[in-house]
Amino acid sequence: MIAKEFDVSISTVSKALKDSHEISEEVKERIKAFAKYYHYKPNSLALNLRNQKTKTIGIIIPQIVHHFFTKVISGIEHVANEKGYNVMICMSMDSYEKEVLNMDMLANGVVDGIIVSVAKETEEKGDYTHFKDLINNGIPLVMFDRVIDEINCNKVLTNDVDGGYLATKHLINIGCKRIAILTTPDYVSVGTLRKEGYENAINNSNLPLNKNLIVKIDEKLEIEEQIKKLFSLKNLPDGIFAVNEIYAAIAMKIATKKGLKIPEDISILGFTDGLISQFSSPSLSTVAQHGNTMGQKAIELLLNEIDSQETDYQFRTKIVETDLILRESTKKLKYNSIK
Question: Which of 42, 119, 275, 337 could be stapled to 99 by a disulfide with Cβ–Cβ 3.0 to 4.6 Å?
Answer without folding.
Answer: 119
